[in-house]
């Protein structure tokens, strides 16, 4: 089994300096902007970005078409509901008018019947008074 030995300050400083030098060497070894490999990677990234933009534009266009189609369907559905509601209201109004006409006819029939009964009753009363020899008072 190895014995653990803690590194002292000098060893840590030397390791940090070595790491910094390695980073600097890696940075210096990086290819320049005019290198064909760099240009190829740049062109590939640009193509990927353009393809993504085309896909997003197509997706946005499809979304707008879907929203327009849904809005048209909703407007048609609301128009159909409004027409159905209007027809139902017209039917209800016609039914109310028919009911009111029947009620008016019934009331006029009852009033006419009541007037006829009153006339008969008045005639009987007048006949009875005439038989008894008294004249009824004129109507007021």
Description:
This protein is an all-alpha fold and 140 residues long. 84% of the residues lie in helices and 0% in strands. The chain has a domain at 36-105. The protein is built from two helices and no strands. The N and C termini lie far apart (139 Å).
Low-confidence stretches: none
* Percentage of residues in strands: under 5%
Shape: rod-shaped
Q: Tell me about the biggest sheet? A: none
Helical percentage: over 70%
Total count of helical runs of at least 4 residues: 2
Question: What is the residue-mean pLDDT, rounded to a whole number?
Answer: 91
SSE arrangement, N to C: HH
Question: How would you describe this structure in keywords?
Answer:
140 residues, mainly alpha, 84% helix
Quick summary:
The chain has 140 residues and is an all-alpha fold. The protein has helices spanning 9-28, 36-132. The protein has a domain at 36-105.
Helix-strand blueprint:
Layout: H1 9-28, H2 36-132
């Amino acid at each position: 089994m190895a014995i653990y030995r803690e590194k002292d300050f000098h060893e840590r400083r030397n390791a940090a300096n070595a790491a910094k030098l390695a980073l600097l060497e890696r940075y210096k070894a990086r290819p320049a902007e005019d290198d064909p490999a760099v240009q190829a990677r740049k062109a590939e990234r640009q193509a990927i970005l353009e393809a993504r933009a085309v896909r997003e534009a197509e997706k946005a266009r499809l979304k707008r078409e879907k929203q327009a189609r849904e809005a048209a369907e909703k407007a048609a559905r609301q128009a159909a509901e409004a027409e159905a509601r209007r027809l139902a209201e017209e039917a209800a109004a016609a039914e109310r008018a028919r009911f009111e006409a029947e009620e008016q006819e019934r009331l006029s029939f009852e009033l006419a019947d009541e007037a006829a009964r009153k006339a008969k009753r008045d005639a009987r009363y007048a006949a009875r008074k005439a038989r008894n020899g008294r004249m009824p008072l004129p109507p007021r």
